[in-house]
């Protein structure tokens, strides 16, 4: 889809990224203008920075709106009439800068939306070609009719009149109306006659779907058997998602709830196209209240989360270990300086961001203590609870905003992306945040993604319970194995903090990390592990990755300062039978030399 836009609207010296709204495209433009320094080249390989103050704006960063109209065959009541995407064009040498925005902000055109756009473009092209062919046929018939010699009127009476009329000057003209729709209606009538003796309910799905492309077949099967709703139900699917999240969060309301008013409702839940989008927008919305204040990143987070705090807005302080002792240092080094008369606004703190638990060391922050400091020093608490998840931990009562990647275990099927943001109506900044959301929030979750997410998440509670049990059994086994140096899992790491927020009867989550005693242990173990390998987590199937190498390859020494071993293997446990999991991990351990 990007290639089509670049070919249609771009220059040879430009690239572009696509966004689901003009506002996002504008934010990308501002990001590129802030960080991109145009260069000139003395030869084909060595760029030299300009010294004349040339800006990215002067170099040409622009926005193009690309509207795709619905093909006539797709038009139906309540359906989509058009799709708009917005392209931010920039010089090719600014590609790496624009890619950072795409990666960190997460407000993207998802793959499913892009595929839908491409499908519409192909259908429109086919309809245009069909209409052109029909027009050519009518013109040919008209020309033949004009050249036909006069014959016996008796024999001519039964002939079919050509589909053309004459204008006042005697030249042939085309009939009015939509030729494509006319041809389509004739085809539908013929198909109905050919199959009128076949009961639709008795017809095999393969026969019914014969001749349609793979995407149509997928949608047909999902809707025929009631697994997915029709796209016209996407707004209701989004309401169901918001209500599902709010109900789960409210069900676990703890002692932090004052008991006045609703703890949380679906109106406090906001959906986003990705988990990173929820994190980025939580930070962006908070900045609308205090635009000059820095944030604090507490604990070692997912790499893009830290980049959001560093690159958007005034910056952040980073306390990467995330231990209770770091809270003492944080208060002394930063927070105490924000009290008293004459403290500049830019010296105050916007928010503390943390994960609960963190990725990949599974540390749990002391949210009770951080919440007390937030009340004392006047900042927000924003928590990413993706790894803890709505079922296992009770987080919102201690936070102003809770974000989550719904792409992970909430979905589980690893076939759709999404994120959520929940506001706590009991916290002091709720009104300001709510007002900001009313001005700034855009519903950018693609309709098909909402449909798939709603379907996948219907079983998230039962899936999480089984994954919790599998993971705990695996970690208990690995922790006592002689070849294992360390297992990072909330049951063993900052346990007291996790237990403070653990829901009664719930588990410790489905993610853990492991380090081996032998230097070559990680390679041998990873290669022999008979499960899927990949960088995601929260899948219904077990998935492992060499996390540090993938996420911090160019900063291994920096990551090591915070206890992230370069040979660390991260494992997201799935729904497999426990015996299968145990046997597979035993085989991988056996591959490590004694």
TrEMBL record:
One Pfam short name: Cys_Met_Meta_PP
Keyword Hydrolase tagged: no
EC number of the protein: 2.5.1.48
Pathway note: Amino-acid biosynthesis; L-methionine biosynthesis via de novo pathway; L-cystathionine from O-succinyl-L-homoserine: step 1/1
UniProt-listed InterPro entries: Cys/Met-Metab_PyrdxlP-dep_enz, PyrdxlP-dep_Trfase, PyrdxlP-dep_Trfase_major, PyrdxlP-dep_Trfase_small, Trans-sulfuration_enzymes
Cofactor: pyridoxal 5'-phosphate
Annotated region described as Disordered, given as residue ranges: 156-212
Any one GO biological process: transsulfuration
UniProt feature, compositional bias: Acidic residues: 197-211
Function: Catalyzes the formation of L-cystathionine from O-succinyl-L-homoserine (OSHS) and L-cysteine, via a gamma-replacement reaction. In the absence of thiol, catalyzes gamma-elimination to form 2-oxobutanoate, succinate and ammonia.
Assigned protein family: Belongs to the trans-sulfuration enzymes family.
Listed name of the protein: cystathionine gamma-synthase
């Amino acid at each position: 889809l990007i290639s089509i836009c670049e070919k249609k609207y771009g220059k040879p010296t430009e690239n572009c990224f696509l966004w689901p709204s003009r506002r996002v495209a504008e934010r990308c433009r501002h990001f590129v203008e802030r960080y991109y320094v145009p260069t000139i080249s003395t030869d084909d390989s060595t760029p030299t920075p300009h010294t004349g103050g040339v800006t990215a704006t002067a170099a040409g960063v622009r926005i193009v709106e690309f509207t795709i109209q619905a093909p006539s065959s797709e038009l139906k009541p309540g359906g989509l009439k058009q799709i708009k995407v917005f392209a931010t064009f920039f010089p090719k040498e600014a590609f790496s800068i624009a890619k950072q925005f795409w990666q960190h902000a997460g407000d993207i055109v998802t793959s499913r939306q892009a595929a839908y756009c491409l499908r519409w473009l192909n259908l429109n092209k086919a309809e245009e070609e069909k209409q052109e062919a029909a027009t050519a046929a009518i013109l040919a018939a008209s020309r033949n009719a004009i050249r036909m010699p006069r014959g016996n009127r008796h024999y001519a009476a039964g002939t079919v009149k050509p589909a053309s009329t004459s204008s006042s000057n005697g030249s042939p003209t085309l009939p009015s109306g939509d030729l494509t729709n006319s041809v389509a209606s004739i085809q539908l009538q013929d198909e109905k006659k050919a199959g009128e003796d076949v009961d639709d309910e008795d017809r095999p799905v393969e026969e019914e779907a014969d001749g349609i492309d793979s995407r149509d077949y997928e949608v047909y099967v999902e809707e025929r058997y009631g697994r997915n709703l029709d796209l016209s139900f996407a707004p209701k699917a989004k309401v169901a998602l918001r209500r599902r999240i709010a109900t789960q969060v409210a069900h676990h309301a703890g002692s932090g709830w004052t008991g006045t008013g609703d703890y949380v409702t679906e109106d406090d839940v906001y959906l986003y196209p990705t988990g990173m989008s929820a994190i980025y927008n939580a930070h962006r919305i908070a900045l609308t209240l205090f635009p000059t204040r820095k944030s604090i990143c507490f604990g070692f987070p997912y790499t893009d989360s830290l980049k959001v705090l560093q690159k958007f807005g005034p910056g952040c302080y980073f306390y990467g270990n995330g231990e209770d002792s770091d809270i003492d240092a944080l208060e002394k080094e930063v927070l105490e300086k924000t009290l008293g008369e004459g403290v500049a606004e830019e010296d105050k703190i916007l928010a503390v961001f943390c994960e609960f638990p963190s990725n990949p060391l599974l540390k749990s922050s002391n949210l009770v203590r951080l919440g007390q400091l937030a009340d004392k020093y006047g900042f927000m608490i924003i928590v990413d609870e993706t790894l803890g998840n709505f079922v296992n931990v009770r987080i919102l009562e201690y936070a102003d905003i809770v974000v989550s990647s719904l792409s992970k275990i909430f979905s589980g099927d690893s076939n759709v992306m999404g994120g959520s943001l929940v506001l706590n109506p009991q916290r002091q900044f709720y009104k300001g945040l709510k007002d900001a959301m009313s001005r700034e929030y855009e519903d950018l979750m693609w309709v098909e993604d909402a449909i798939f997410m709603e379907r996948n998440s219907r079983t998230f509670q039962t899936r999480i319970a089984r994954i919790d049990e599998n993971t705990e059994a695996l970690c208990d086994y690995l922790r006592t194995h002689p070849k294992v140096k360390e297992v990072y899992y909330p049951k063993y790491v900052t346990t007291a903090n996790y237990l403070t927020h653990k829901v009664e009867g719930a588990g410790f989550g489905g993610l853990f990390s492991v380090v081996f005693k032998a230097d070559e242990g990680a390679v041998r173990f990873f290669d022999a592990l008979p499960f899927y390998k990949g960088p995601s987590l929260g899948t219904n199937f077990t998935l492992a990755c060499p996390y540090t190498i993938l996420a911090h390859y160019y900063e291994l020494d920096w990551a090591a300062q915070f206890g992230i071993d370069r040979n660390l293997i991260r494992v997201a446990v799935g729904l497999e039978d426990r015996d299968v999991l145990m046997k597979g991990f035993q085989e991988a351990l056996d591959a490590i030399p004694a």
